[in-house]
């Protein structure tokens, strides 16, 4: 699939440092492939030199020359690479940011597919994953065909692909968009992470709708964001790259995120001035499930129920409603979709008993666990039973914090294994114990996760809410560099069957 170099660079602010001919001759050069992985350099390609945390693609310019690449896109030319370019036919193009350059050229390579879709980008610290699925559920309930890109998976209309990053590299984003267009999708909803914005993974197109859910300190540290201000700055970038910005006006950082944005501004929240306002929020129980009822005013007047617990679920619903109103979705389709929403690994209810509630959630740090357990207390449970471990090769402080959080908020804690990676599971469990011993919380340690879940089921009491935390949507357990199949839904089914209990999911 040949493309003209001039077409790929049409929207890039580029400087031609070297070309065989004169003037605009470079524009007619045929490009056989767009490559950003040096291992895939081939004859006739445009090689985009990306500088990463551990590797700099600019060091492979000589290899691109040797393999007869047609052109290289660079930010600079290293001294030790300059001599190899002399006398070669390789075209050298410079841009200020090759990550942005990759997004721009990738969009052109795939024929600007975003122009043929309604594009929805959701950013924020919490709620991105759940909100994307609610949007997808509502729109599909109304007859639209919707693609999705997020933390759990990518859905292109013909394929479901497990996700490696919340926001994939820009080339992959454009490739997925093109596949969605081919599959006649009407829209795409995607999670847009701060890293994705910082690394220009959504460069090359303008979102129709950009959404801000909320903001709290996260992803701050080595190879992420140097401080909270940088984290906020990156989140804010989305609102210079969308036509309509939809903001949670209740969040304390709303004014900072929306200040100076170039898009049209809409708001949702519980405050009187919100364009879409929720009120009369009430927790409710339906059999073994926990949900929320609420009403809305402003852009839509609804009497709604979402089949997920907690006020944060109402905010996620508001996010989705605010977006879907732009698609002309009627009230009945919105209400019906909210009542049957389910997101894998996000407060996912498993219907195992009418006497107690069993759920799976991705809460894998103290902040998320605190939010979840605090929310569950609103449902006046008999007991809250928290089952979790912590991942190896990660910040040890997380273990102490999660232990202390669970000890303070749960009535009973079952400490088990998560992804030990290259650490000894019992060392990780000992760290969690150190945190929980700062509290008066009761706990037990059961290192094998299946046995731990069996313990929770065997000791469940009427009115209990049992939370299997930390793994969420993951279907593996990583031990000593090897990922072993392990899906908590499968484990629960096996445990119920072994006990002669009917499986209802």
Please specify the SSE layout and strand pairing.
Elements: E1 3-4, H1 5-8, E2 15-18, E3 30-31, E4 34-35, E5 46-48, H2 61-66, E6 71-74, H3 79-85, E7 91-94, H4 98-109, E8 118-123, H5 128-141, E9 146-149, E10 153-155, E11 160-162, H6 170-182, E12 187-191, H7 194-198, E13 207-212, H8 228-236, E14 242-248, H9 254-258, E15 264-269, E16 276-286, E17 289-298, E18 302-306, H10 311-324, H11 331-339, E19 348-350, E20 357-361, H12 366-377, E21 384-388, H13 397-409, E22 412-415, H14 425-436, E23 442-445, H15 449-458, E24 465-469, E25 476-479, E26 482-485, H16 488-498
Parallel strand pairs: 4-5, 5-6, 6-7, 8-12, 8-13, 9-12, 13-14, 14-15, 15-16, 20-24, 21-22, 21-24, 22-23
Antiparallel strand pairs: 1-3, 2-7, 9-10, 10-11, 16-17, 17-18, 19-20, 25-26
Helix pairs in contact: 4-6, 5-10, 5-11, 12-13, 13-14, 15-16
